[in-house]
Amino acid sequence: MDNGTFLRIAGLSAGYGATRVLERLDLDIRKGEFVALLGSSGCGKTTLLRAVAGFAKPSAGSIIVAGRDVTRLPPDRRGMAMVFQSYALWSHMTVGQNIGYGLKLKGLPRTEIAQRVGELEEMLGLTGLGSRKPAALSGGQRQRVALGRALAINPQILLLDEPLSNLDARIRLKVRHDISALQKRLGITAVHVTHDREEAMVMADRIVIMDAGRIAQQGTPEEVYNRPASPFVAAFMGAENVLELSGNVDASAVAIKAGANNHRCLLPLGGRTLESGMFEARFRAEAAELMTGDAPAGAPGQALELSGRVEAASYPGGIWRHSIRIGEAQILVDAPRPFEHGSAVRIRIPAEKLFLFNTRSAHERPHAHSLHDGRKGRVLEASET
Amino acid sequence: MSTAAIPETNAPGFRLDLWWIPRAIVLGLIAFAIFGPLTNLLLWTVAEKWYFPHTLPLEYGFSYWGRVFSPRGNAMESLTNSILVASLTVVVSLALAIPAGYALARLRLPFRAAILFAFLIPQAFPNLPVYVNIARLFYEIGLNGTIAGVVLVHATHGLVYAVWIATAAFAAVDAELEQAARSIGAGALRAFREVTLPLAAPGLLASAIFVFLESLDEFTGSYFVGAPDVNMLPLLLYTAGAGGNYQVASITALLLLIPSVGFMLVVERFLKSDVLSKVGH
């Protein structure tokens, strides 16, 4: 084992009956690291978390914590604590009893439990609520009690199963920062399951994007955002505008062939691994620059330029979002000012913000299911989520 | 009707009043159907002399109460027997229903529906032939005429309520509540004892009350297996009623009615809709 790895998941497979949810998954997590498992529903992220916690039996592979194989250990002997999406607070116990339960299990004297519970209540802003029942608390307070109950036992690893998804949007933003600040302060290793991209970006040191039981990509928030490794990751990270392009690749640059709606251009390869042929190009609505159709052309080497027609514009706040038709395709582009409906426009996408992937014919991808289906039905405002 | 709708219907106020007439009649009939026989029963308990064609008793008094509760009258013995048997039946039924209900609610058991259905079988056949045969069998192994024998008969009868309601009660406790305890260090048994069991307790209490009331009212099994060595309240009621002694029969009936009404109020409070919706699933 290389030093630094604290939680090692090796070759983990799991499933219900014949359906495999996890496929020989490997993941190493360092001590004190905050890892977010990000993916759409059914990608296996929750199963992975439950397997680590001991609630789902893996069919193969192992889970190793600090050199100790815990794969066959029951959940209560793994030194972990889990925070559930439903909070799972015990309604027959008070807030204080909920938080102190883990300490009671350890057989600590009552005064010591009371002191530790008091500390946690203070740390989590629950002071004075200790004798209330969970039913008498707000959603945010319940969430903090659930967190306090998990933190009380000083777990080696904190497992968070979408703990914020039942909170109001406004509280959620604050709690994100509270949890990651607390995790950093206590130095706990945390594994956080979420389907919320922004939540993962804000909270995690490392994001693990999962797709169909495998890891699609992992890296720092900046890496997965700016250098998606596959069309799936690009789409999941918000690059939902998609175009078909073709071109030739040489050692340092990719030459995009002129098409019906674009001129020939030469883009620096910039670390991409591409083969000549058909490309799937993806970019975010905010990555492109919108210009009127008669604006002077920019330097051809640095950006892809497309021509299209404005179909609709809306104002989601801050910027104007335009729906633009380019040949058969429809894309969303942001601009600081509105462009008239029906007007001809040019769209300029800087090379570093254009994600290029070989399409399936050139480069076989076994897990090609992605957000393709959802693309048809998306509305102007939906690309933000 | 929502409060917002009231101002609208206020204008043609007399129509609203007219609607109360059929409602009042229906409610009155229902009340009469329920409370009429009860009033009759209450009157009989305090009637000293009452015969046809008089609508009301001719003399009132409590002399029959004294007779029922006198050491010579066997009401006290029957009451003690009934309560003892009912309590033991609850203990036996719950001892089986708690593990069975937990397993049926939590584990992915094969033939789960068949197992749940099996508990219905004692109710599916006519009581009389079943209990006659049980009595014969119990006679051979010396269980006839013993408290244990009657408890066993009542338990087979009560298990369907106990197991079905206990299964629903455990199913209504989210598995995550138990897992939350497991994840912070509670062993399986401890998590069950300190989290699942207390949370399922109201439903289990309701099932206990059902079993208790069933046992208290049960006649056929008590008659064939218990009598004449173990006498129960329904048997006393039967004997008194058959002998034309309506005062004693009514007083016995009232004794049976009190726990029923009292416990139904408790059940109504504890058997929440989340448990009820899971009965039989």
From TrEMBL, chain A:
<dbReference type="InterPro" id="IPR017871">
    <property type="entry name" value="ABC_transporter-like_CS"/>
</dbReference>
<dbReference type="GO" id="GO:0043190">
    <property type="term" value="C:ATP-binding cassette (ABC) transporter complex"/>
</dbReference>
<dbReference type="InterPro" id="IPR003593">
    <property type="entry name" value="AAA+_ATPase"/>
</dbReference>
<keyword id="KW-0067">ATP-binding</keyword>
<comment type="similarity">
    <text>Belongs to the ABC transporter superfamily.</text>
</comment>
<dbReference type="GO" id="GO:0140359">
    <property type="term" value="F:ABC-type transporter activity"/>
</dbReference>
<dbReference type="InterPro" id="IPR027417">
    <property type="entry name" value="P-loop_NTPase"/>
</dbReference>
<keyword id="KW-0813">Transport</keyword>
<protein>
    <submittedName>
        <fullName>Fe3+/spermidine/putrescine ABC transporter ATP-binding protein</fullName>
    </submittedName>
</protein>
<dbReference type="InterPro" id="IPR003439">
    <property type="entry name" value="ABC_transporter-like_ATP-bd"/>
</dbReference>
<feature type="domain" description="ABC transporter">
    <location>
        <begin position="7"/>
        <end position="237"/>
    </location>
</feature>
<keyword id="KW-0547">Nucleotide-binding</keyword>
<feature type="region of interest" description="Disordered">
    <location>
        <begin position="365"/>
        <end position="385"/>
    </location>
</feature>
<dbReference type="Pfam" id="PF00005">
    <property type="entry name" value="ABC_tran"/>
</dbReference>
<dbReference type="GO" id="GO:0016887">
    <property type="term" value="F:ATP hydrolysis activity"/>
</dbReference>
<dbReference type="GO" id="GO:0005524">
    <property type="term" value="F:ATP binding"/>
</dbReference>
<dbReference type="InterPro" id="IPR050093">
    <property type="entry name" value="ABC_SmlMolc_Importer"/>
</dbReference>
TrEMBL record, chain B:
<keyword id="KW-0812">Transmembrane</keyword>
<keyword id="KW-0813">Transport</keyword>
<dbReference type="Pfam" id="PF00528">
    <property type="entry name" value="BPD_transp_1"/>
</dbReference>
<dbReference type="InterPro" id="IPR035906">
    <property type="entry name" value="MetI-like_sf"/>
</dbReference>
<feature type="transmembrane region" description="Helical">
    <location>
        <begin position="151"/>
        <end position="173"/>
    </location>
</feature>
<feature type="domain" description="ABC transmembrane type-1">
    <location>
        <begin position="79"/>
        <end position="267"/>
    </location>
</feature>
<keyword id="KW-0472">Membrane</keyword>
<dbReference type="InterPro" id="IPR000515">
    <property type="entry name" value="MetI-like"/>
</dbReference>
<protein>
    <submittedName>
        <fullName>Spermidine/putrescine ABC transporter permease</fullName>
    </submittedName>
</protein>
<comment type="similarity">
    <text>Belongs to the binding-protein-dependent transport system permease family.</text>
</comment>
<keyword id="KW-0997">Cell inner membrane</keyword>
<feature type="transmembrane region" description="Helical">
    <location>
        <begin position="194"/>
        <end position="213"/>
    </location>
</feature>
<dbReference type="GO" id="GO:0005886">
    <property type="term" value="C:plasma membrane"/>
</dbReference>
<feature type="transmembrane region" description="Helical">
    <location>
        <begin position="246"/>
        <end position="267"/>
    </location>
</feature>
<keyword id="KW-1003">Cell membrane</keyword>
<feature type="transmembrane region" description="Helical">
    <location>
        <begin position="24"/>
        <end position="47"/>
    </location>
</feature>
<dbReference type="GO" id="GO:0055085">
    <property type="term" value="P:transmembrane transport"/>
</dbReference>
<keyword id="KW-1133">Transmembrane helix</keyword>
<feature type="transmembrane region" description="Helical">
    <location>
        <begin position="116"/>
        <end position="139"/>
    </location>
</feature>
<feature type="transmembrane region" description="Helical">
    <location>
        <begin position="83"/>
        <end position="104"/>
    </location>
</feature>
